[in-house]
From TrEMBL:
This is Uncharacterized protein DUF2020. Keywords: Signal. Residues 29-46 have a biased composition (Low complexity). It comes from the Bacteria. Residues 1-22 form the signal peptide.
Length: 183
């Protein structure tokens, strides 16, 4: 895997990556218990993007169904964990007890910070341009360890990382998240 993808995936897991969970209908999440920790999202980050969210509790992703993730990413979802971020926690979908197969991070803040979140996940110099859905801009890249699809629009950013090498899977999930949240 190229260095940029490794850094992007590591950053996402270190700073708080994304993931999604739910039921067979991507708009209807499956209930689960959840523990919470202090939120880490910010609307301004003078020193760059905020830390990538980390999973803190088991739970159900409020904006993405686990069944949809399983179908879109091509792997069963064994468990889902959430970050403490609010109003939209990062969701981490696990292929087994320890391996995150997919993560989704939805950032809300100012436009400059949203762009920085995307640029950290999919650096312009190392990624292919991403422009879906309409009005969203960012990058996508794939490597030996998986794919990243990260886009921003105004003060919102969505970053999807997958252990699958096809960026189309991460893109489809990002488009679904953006639609489900009405962003």
């Amino acid at each position: 895997m190229n260095r940029a993808l490794r850094n992007a995936l590591s950053s996402l897991l270190v700073l708080g990556a994304l993931t999604a969970c739910g039921s067979a209908d991507p708009t209807v999440p499956t209930p689960t218990t959840a523990k919470s920790a202090p939120a880490t999202q910010s609307t301004a980050a003078p020193a760059g993007p905020p830390p990538v969210p980390q999973p803190t509790a088991d739970g159900t992703c409020p904006y993405l169904a686990s069944a949809f993730v399983a179908e879109a990413n091509g792997q069963l979802v064994r468990k889902t964990r959430l970050s403490a971020d609010q109003p939209d926690p990062a969701c981490f979908f696990y292929a087994n007890a320890e391996d995150v197969q997919l993560s989704v991070w939805v950032f809300h803040g100012d436009a400059k910070t949203a762009k920085a979140v995307v640029d950290r996940a999919a650096p312009v110099a190392d990624s292919s341009p991403a422009s879906a859905p309409d009005g969203w801009v960012g990058g996508s890249l794939a490597g030996a360890e998986g794919a990243v699809y990260a886009v921003a629009k105004e003060g919102d950013a969505v970053v999807v990382t997958s252990n699958q090498k096809q960026t189309i899977k991460a893109r489809r999930i990002a488009e679904t998240v953006i639609g489900n949240l009405g962003l």
